[in-house]
């Protein structure tokens, strides 16, 4: 009797498990990783993924969000161990390095679902490598922000941001608030540490470049020296800045209200608007020779090692549908990159969004480099040496270029 | 009679087996999480490995490169300076605090003990965040106090000459409480009659301190010194959070360079070589300490 009962229970369990495994065999599970620490990213992405799962009941997505500072390590380790996620967001530096190692699947540019013709050129250009599209960019463009209240305080017209570098320098001097020789409020927010983004922003305005498509340095050009000399003078000659580290956990100087002008990424806006609200002024990058903006951001990519190529591609395409992009913009403030969303985006907040979208259409990111992270660090260190007067701008940039060339050889 | 030795050995073997069985989990964990990674690191130190492709044997090239690398030699120098200027002040201040707290006449010892020890139990990450705010060049607490006192303010963490002393100060503040607690335990273990005898002989308090207290706590001093050496050579958290090695690499340390090369530039082989250099340094210092710093003490 006991044995019969046990047999029936065992049979029941077997049938049940078989049923589950049969049911599960039709479901494809994808792993999706997203970098970032903000809870808004998690909430937004989970809601977008829930919509995807509803549309595709045979695909389940496991979402993992990893803070930026741990992300490169975890992703590299996952690739190294053969357990890379199927779909992932990657930062600029990682994208350049991983794409050159053939770690991503190319997207089908002719896919009707993706409809690449609807994207801004910058999105297609920055996500491409050797003619193929590997990543779709969620952009954060660097626009010029300023504090209208500080402008008024300094006797400047709050509706007239500086139009060129000469004016920017004049404004920076005027807007700097000092206590003796001590700068209490900076005229312009210039990060002295990890300052390569600010340097690039200025370099773009002279039509210069950091490095070419192979990572060979170009920043020690006449334009590079001019841009760095300009920034160094604002620090040392005119004493208009508060030294800072852009990666500091306390946040950028402008974010904390201790600078009057800055180039900030659009993603910082929700936080800034909470602090400064209507005191913020928005403008396109200052035009010296060009008003090209620096664009950075996160790319959505599909791993070349995915075992579910079709489902993974489907997910990436879904993430880049108009509806998903809109949800992502609303939740995380990444600019929508489809032309078909432009009117809706501008209507959403005309004063600033018109500026953002114009800046995005005329923006450019860093070229890919096989030694991107190291090159960034080498360049940042050389900029520091110039800021602290250890080397002239030309010496600092020439030395950095030589070090990067050596790193590329290795 | 013949079976006696056999039975004895069998018994001994059985009890040894049981003993081994008890320590097996510990050794397993140690082997998997310490020994194998150390051996693997030793191997990687001689390879070019970027996590993505298989390690490629390059011999001693990584070591040659490390000692030609300006960043690494700077980090070595910074780490030595950091250690020297952290260990001694922290131990001396810890001892002074312990002696003061050991005074029977002092009221509110528990509050003082808690105040001094608190920094040691706070996460270094959280503490570094607080110090970041204190040192903030624009509106930090320290500069605000200096301004109120009409004194010159400084770019504490953004001045190449002041950044390292600023980080060292945080470390002294953090380590002082631990040293104090250990010293306090040592002081309370010194027999009272030694002081009584010295008092009868007419020795002053200062004389008693140098001829009784200091020799009696020598094992404690030795223990704290060895631990502090190992800890300060592995400094990373506060450097990473407060300065990230800057400005101009003035606060970069060996572990900071290992981290950068391994996890930011994917140079795992090169970082492993650096890690082995660090292992050699700490091992050498520890052995040196045990050889020359532990005479006449029964700590080991």
From TrEMBL, chain A:
Pfam family, one: SBP_bac_8
Protein name stated in the entry: Carbohydrate ABC transporter substrate-binding protein (CUT1 family)
Organism annotation: Hydrogenispora ethanolica
Coiled coil regions, renumbered to chain: none
Organism superkingdom: Bacteria
UniProtKB/TrEMBL annotation, chain B:
Sorted UniProt keywords: Cell membrane, Membrane, Transmembrane, Transmembrane helix, Transport
Coiled-coil intervals: none
Main location: membrane
InterPro entries from the UniProt entry: ABC_transporter_permease (IPR051393), MetI-like (IPR000515), MetI-like_sf (IPR035906)
GO biological process, one term: transmembrane transport
TM regions (residue ranges): 20-43, 80-102, 114-134, 161-185, 216-236, 270-290
One Pfam family of this chain: BPD_transp_1
Cellular location(s): Cell membrane
Membrane topology of the entry: Multi-pass membrane protein
Gene3D superfamilies attached to this UniProt entry: MetI-like (1.10.3720.10)
Example of a GO cellular component annotation carried by this entry: plasma membrane
Domain ABC transmembrane type-1: residue ranges: 76-289
Family: Belongs to the binding-protein-dependent transport system permease family.
Name listed for the protein in its UniProt record: Carbohydrate ABC transporter membrane protein 1 (CUT1 family)
């Amino acid at each position: 009797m006991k044995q019969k009962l046990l047999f029936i229970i065992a049979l029941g369990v077997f049938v049940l498990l078989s049923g589950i495994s049969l049911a599960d065999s039709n479901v494809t599970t994808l792993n999706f990783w997203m970098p970032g620490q903000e809870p808004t990213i998690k909430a937004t992405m989970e809601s977008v993924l829930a919509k995807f799962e509803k549309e595709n009941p045979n695909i389940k997505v496991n979402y993992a969000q990893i803070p930026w500072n741990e992300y490169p390590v975890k992703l590299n380790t996952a690739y190294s161990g053969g357990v890379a996620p199927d779909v992932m967001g990657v930062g600029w530096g990682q994208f350049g390095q991983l794409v050159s190692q053939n770690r991503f699947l190319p997207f089908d540019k002719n896919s009707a679902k993706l409809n690449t013709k609807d994207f801004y050129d910058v999105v297609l250009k920055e996500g491409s490598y050797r003619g193929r599209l590997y990543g779709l960019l969620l952009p954060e463009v660097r626009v010029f922000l300023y504090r209208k209240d500080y402008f008024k305080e300094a006797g400047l017209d709050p509706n007239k941001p500086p139009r060129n570098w000469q004016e920017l320098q004049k404004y920076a001097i005027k807007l700097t608030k000092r206590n003796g020789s001590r700068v209490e409020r900076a005229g312009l927010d210039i990060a002295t540490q990890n300052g390569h983004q600010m340097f690039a922003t200025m370099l773009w305005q002279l039509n210069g470049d950091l490095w070419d498509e192979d990572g060979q340095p170009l920043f020690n050009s006449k334009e590079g020296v001019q841009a760095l000399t300009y920034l160094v003078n604002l620090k040392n000659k005119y004493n208009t800045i508060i030294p800072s580290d852009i990666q500091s956990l306390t946040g950028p100087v402008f974010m904390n209200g201790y600078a009057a002008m800055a180039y900030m990424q659009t993603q910082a806006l929700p936080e800034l608007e909470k602090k400064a609200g209507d005191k913020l002024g928005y403008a396109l990058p200052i035009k010296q020779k060009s008003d090209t903006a620096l664009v950075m951001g996160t790319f959505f990519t599909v791993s070349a090692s995915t075992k579910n190529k079709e489902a993974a591609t489907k997910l990436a395409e879904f993430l880049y549908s108009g509806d998903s992009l809109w949800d992502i913009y609303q939740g995380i403030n990444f600019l929508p990159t489809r032309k078909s969303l432009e009117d809706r985006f501008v209507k959403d907040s005309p004063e600033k969004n018109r500026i953002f979208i114009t800046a995005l259409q005329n923006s450019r990111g860093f070229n890919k480099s096989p030694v991107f992270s190291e090159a960034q660090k080498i360049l940042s260190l050389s900029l520091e040496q110039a800021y602290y007067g250890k080397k002239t701008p030309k010496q600092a940039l020439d030395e950095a270029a030589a070090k990067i060339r050596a790193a590329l050889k290795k | 009679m013949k079976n006696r030795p056999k039975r004895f050995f069998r018994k001994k073997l059985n009890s040894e087996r049981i003993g081994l069985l008890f320590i097996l989990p510990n050794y397993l964990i140690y082997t998997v999480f310490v020994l194998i990674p150390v051996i693997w690191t030793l191997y990687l130190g001689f390879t070019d490995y970027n996590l993505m492709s298989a390690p490629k044997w390059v011999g001693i090239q990584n070591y040659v490169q490390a000692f030609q690398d300006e960043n690494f030699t700077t980090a070595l120098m910074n780490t030595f300076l950091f250690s020297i200027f952290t260990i001694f002040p922290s131990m001396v201040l810890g001892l002074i605090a312990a002696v003061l707290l050991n005074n029977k006449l002092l009221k509110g010892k528990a509050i003082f003990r808690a105040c001094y020890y608190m920094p040691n139990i706070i996460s270094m990450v959280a503490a570094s965040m607080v110090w970041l705010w204190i040192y903030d060049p624009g509106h930090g607490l320290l500069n605000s106090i200096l301004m109120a006192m009409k004194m010159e303010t400084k770019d504490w963490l953004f001045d190449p000459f002041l950044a390292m002393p600023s980080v060292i100060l945080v470390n002294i503040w953090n380590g002082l409480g631990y040293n104090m607690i250990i010293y306090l335990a040592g002081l309370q273990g010194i027999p009272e009659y030694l002081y009584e005898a010295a008092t009868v002989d007419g020795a002053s308090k200062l004389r008693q301190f140098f001829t009784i207290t200091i020799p009696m706590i020598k094992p404690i001093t030795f223990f704290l010194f060895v631990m502090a050496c190992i800890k300060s050579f592995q400094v990373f958290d506060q450097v990473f959070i407060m300065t990230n090695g800057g400005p101009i690499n003035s606060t970069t340390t060996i572990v900071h360079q290992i981290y950068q090369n391994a996890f930011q530039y994917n140079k795992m082989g090169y970082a492993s070589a650096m890690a082995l250099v660090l292992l050699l340094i700490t091992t050498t210092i520890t052995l040196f300490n045990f050889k020359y710093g532990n005479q006449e003490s029964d700590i080991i």
